[in-house]
Design a protein that fits this description.
Elements (H helix, E strand, L loop, with lengths): L2 H17 L3 H23 L6 H20 L3 H12 L6 H32 L1
Length: 125
């Protein structure tokens, strides 16, 4: 099974868990799928020179990996990956736009989590 097939299988499993209401198992599968895709992107980035097709692949799989980390609830990991990808000069414009939109979603979710945490601490006092 290649990395694409592995990540797709994990995504399908995550969707099944989500449909069954098992959010924790779904998040775990999303994270594993993201790890596979991030590993694939890292292999390509490690090359000295990139063809336009490889730059496109980085754009597609990088965005997908960041999105999967977001779905997994791995907000800090998603945020770091988005920042790393946005620093690339060869990133496609559409992927750049979508990564910025994802970053806003990540920040919103982080803000909500922080607000919930603060509210919980206030209730304990």
């Amino acid at each position: 099974m290649n990395k694409y097939q592995e990540s797709q299988a994990r995504i399908a499993e995550a969707e099944s868990h989500l449909a069954a209401g098992d959010v924790s198992a779904a998040r775990q599968q999303y994270r594993l799928a993201a790890d596979v895709q991030r590993s694939f992107v890292s292999c390509i980035i490690g090359r000295r020179s990139l063809s336009p097709d490889q730059a496109r692949t980085i754009s597609i799989y990088g965005l997908s990996a960041a999105t999967l980390y977001y779905r997994a609830g791995e907000l800090d990991t998603a945020e770091r990956l988005v920042h790393q990808l946005l620093m690339r000069k060869d990133l496609e414009r559409r992927a750049r736009t979508q990564l910025k939109e994802l970053l806003v979603c990540v920040w919103d979710e982080q803000s909500r989590a922080l607000a919930d945490q603060r509210a919980g601490m206030e209730m304990e006092e």
